[in-house]
What does this fold into?
Amino acid sequence: MFKIIDKKELCENVHQFRIEASHLVQKAKAGQFVILRKDDKGERVPMSIGGLDKNKGLLTVVIQEVGKTSASMNRMKIGESFADVVGPLGIPSHIEKFGHCICIGGGVGIPPIFPIAQALKMAGNRVTTIIGARNKSLLIFEEELSSASDRLLITTDDGSYGTHGFVTTVLQKLITDGEKIDMVIAIGPVPMMKAVVNTTREPKVKTLVSLNPIMVDGTGMCGACRVTVGGKTKFACVDGPDFDGHEVDFDEMTKRMKMYAKYEKVAYEKFLHNDCHLAKQIEEMR
Amino acid sequence: MTDENKNKPINKKERMKIPRQKMPEQLPQDRVRNFKEVPYGLTPQLAMEEAKRCLECPKPPCIAGCPVEVNIPAFIKLVAEGDFIGAARKIKETNALPAICGRVCPQEEQCEQVCVLTKKHKSVGIGNLERFVADYEREHGKVEIPKLPPSTGKKIAVVGSGPAGLTVAADLAQMGHKVTIYEALHKPGGVLIYGIPEFRLPKAIVQSEVNYLMQLGVEVKTSYVVGKLDTVDELFEMGFDAIFIGTGAGLPNFMKIEGENFNGIYSANEFLTRSNLMAAYDFPNMDTPIFVGENVAVLGGGNTAMDSVRTSLRLGAKNAYIVYRRSRTEMPARIEEIHHAEQEGVQFMFLTNPIKYIGDENGWVKAMECIKMELGEPDASGRRRPVEIKGSNFVLPVDTVVVAVGNSSNPLIPQTTPGLKTNKWGNIEVDPNTQMSSRPGVFAGGDIVTGGATVILAAGAGKVAARAIHKYVMGIPFDEPKKEEAKPAVR
Ligand SMILES: Cc1cc2nc3c(=O)[nH]c(=O)nc-3n(C[C@H](O)[C@H](O)[C@H](O)COP(=O)(O)OP(=O)(O)OC[C@H]3O[C@@H](n4cnc5c(N)ncnc54)[C@H](O)[C@@H]3O)c2cc1C
Ligand SMILES: Cc1cc2nc3c(=O)[nH]c(=O)nc-3n(C[C@H](O)[C@H](O)[C@H](O)COP(=O)(O)OP(=O)(O)OC[C@H]3O[C@@H](n4cnc5c(N)ncnc54)[C@H](O)[C@@H]3O)c2cc1C
Ligand code: SF4
Ligand code: FES
It folds into this structure.
């Protein structure tokens, strides 16, 4: 069993977990992911590795509530355990001395950028990190990333903190200012990754993105996670999750991620209803 | 029949007069609405009557027709005598998984095909009897946990918990070794759990085989992906004396035609895993969803295709098609499954091949362009090669497609195990006498060696490997390779 040692709410609907998984933590590298299953009825859901505490054997994941499974996970308490934590899965991010690297994170793509920025810095790169959120209250992992980067740039959509705009607003400015950029790695919502890739396409800056399609097994057995990269079908769980952003068919991926939208809505609403119901019952009992 | 006749010896002629006993089963119109097993199984009376049909041939061909050489006439004789437990034990001398094999083995191409009765009558229902006695033993709580020999102190890791891994583990545990199974998924059983549906192989049966292993002291570690968490070399470092790799053929093939990534198009592995392993048919009670539209096309003609198409009917498909590029006679699926599929209303489109998918603006498949085929010259497999008939294209409206055109081997272990030799299909190369690979102490068997084959061949390879692993870890030299006797080809 994989016990939750520590848990905190980073912002609305986003929780950080530190989970006991010492064996996995020793083996895992930046850029990999795990598959979690809450209990015996549970769906297998992939989550990025948002930190590895090798001394304590703790794995950090950050979960955003978007549907039934993420919601029920975010209601788990310290001391409870996940039925399964499978991994480390996927190929670790390619780390070498590139020169000046730009790490870009958005939403729950920010935590996994943290171990990558750390590893890039360890490899002797100059690391500039750009993170963005809709507003100041939704910005997470600022402290971690400022320690892992040579320079941390922040953007908010509403201008409540950092630069007013998107991560690409800042990235575009760096490019226009003529900064030498050797590599960009972006993790976040699909529209963000797509925008980053569009920004770096013209100046031909090598850009990696970490893809998050729907997965089941995470070991190459089912093909649920197939994405088109450079005109070829790839299984993101074993061939990725990192791919050359300029080659990714984001439109196809966006559509594929909506495959179960109808069902997800039903499950989520049912969950929220039961949850409400339960809360009321507990209230009444008191 | 009356009690008086019961104990009278019956002669050959009388035996041949007994018709093959039908196994009662759920009616097609009922079963397409549930996931319960289709046949109910034989009753003790039916089983004894069926067993009487066996001629007790002096030189029984059926034994050689069985890949693990079950002593068929001996177990059938015990059934005829009413000693069902004895019969089950007789089978288990050579086949550890009779409840499973009795259900899923292609008997019609193995033991039953060569049964002498097949020529003039119907063969003895060997598979049905095997299934019956194994169920009887289990349901009556008579599964015996053998007394284990003293521990040898040797540790063996088994990677993968399909029929190959389960068999190796059972045999080695009974020789006194400490066995640990590592399984990537969260439930052990391999294809038996994630692939073959409940209506053909109830999961409780697979679970009881796993429980049996645990009673033998085998440790089962699930959610453990070897090659990611630990490599084969790291397992050796952890103190294992030998390693068996039974990771199956789990990499789904796609057809690489236009539009294959539209929504609604599944690999059979994904479709069946969602339905079986994740129990998506019970959504939203279970958390994993599955999508099945009104018109479902399943591509392929094997067991996997039959399982997928019959699953789709149970999940509400109105029209469920099998689209197969050859004709009925070339279909690799078991006859029983084809027959069951037909009864349930599956529509077969033979000599038909998809060439592209047509999608809507949201990326959902809405139709499939197909072309008609005709059979030409035989190919390498000896089957006549299908060739396209120019201009015979037509469009079939579909909203769900399941691609069941075979699996390749998962490269994860070969990639992370230096020195492990594979052939051009990525299957691990082994010495067939020992199942040992190019790496000393690393053995392999089942689909990872043969490519997609059968449960009994995987289990058979497990038996061979277990004997060799025992010798290897105990420092006993391997036997001189036997001169290969001609054995009927059952693949
Ligand atoms: C490699 C990878 C890393 C990820 N890392 C994180 C992370 O660090 N933090 C985080 O909050 N989320 C992460 N995700 C996304 C996360 O897996 C989904 O949000 C989660 O599965 C949603 O489940 P649900 O039941 O709550 O939502 P649902 O209601 O089922 O779905 C909501 C959305 O999530 C996506 N989704 C649904 N099921 C899956 C699935 N089995 N696999 C992938 N996506 C799915 C769908 O596209 C859907 O639009 C990652 C996904 C991948 C593939
Ligand atoms: C849908 C379907 C229906 C079938 N129907 C029949 C039938 O009716 N009759 C018949 O005889 N045969 C049938 N077969 C074929 C039969 O199931 C296989 O030949 C048999 O299961 C192979 O056994 P195996 O032990 O080699 O591997 P598998 O059963 O494939 O098991 C391999 C196991 O290894 C695990 N694994 C893989 N990689 C790793 C790793 N890196 N680390 C840890 N674990 C790993 C997998 O998760 C899996 O559980 C069918 C196959 C399918 C897919
Ligand atoms: S071949 Fe048929 S009749 Fe002969 S022993 Fe085997 S099962 Fe009995
Ligand atoms: S998630 Fe099944 S192959 Fe990638």
About this structure: Chain B touches chain A through 39 residues (CB under 8 Å). Residues 1-5, 485-491 of chain B have pLDDT under 50 and may be disordered. The longest strand of chain B covers residues 365-378.
